[in-house]
Amino acid sequence: MDQILKEGMEDGSFHSHLNVKLVRQVIFGTLDEVVTNWVMKEQRYDLVEQAKEVHFIIANGLKIHQT
């Protein structure tokens, strides 16, 4: 994970000022929370359906794209 983040920072795919350790914690924390909530809700919804939205949030954050 760290190497992917570092490569993305070097090639301009990710912001160059990111704290790799913190980003890793945010990604794994997000995944842990989503799966834990799914387990606690006794799998009453489709976890796979959420994958695209979770990916979007991790990849784009809460940033509003201005034109």
Fold and architecture overview:
The protein is an all-alpha fold and 67 residues long. It has a domain at 17-60. It is 61% helix and 0% strand. The mean pLDDT is 91.
Topology summary:
Layout: H1 2-11, H2 20-40, H3 51-60
Main sheet: strands, sense, barrel:
none
Secondary-structure element string: HHH
Helix content: 55-70%
- Strand tally is 0
Structural class: mainly alpha
The value of Rg in angstroms is 14 Å
What is the count of helical runs? 3
Which percent band covers the strand fraction? under 5%
Keywords:
0% strand, single chain, mainly alpha, 61% helix, globular, 67 residues
Quick structural gist:
The protein has 67 residues and is mainly alpha-helical.
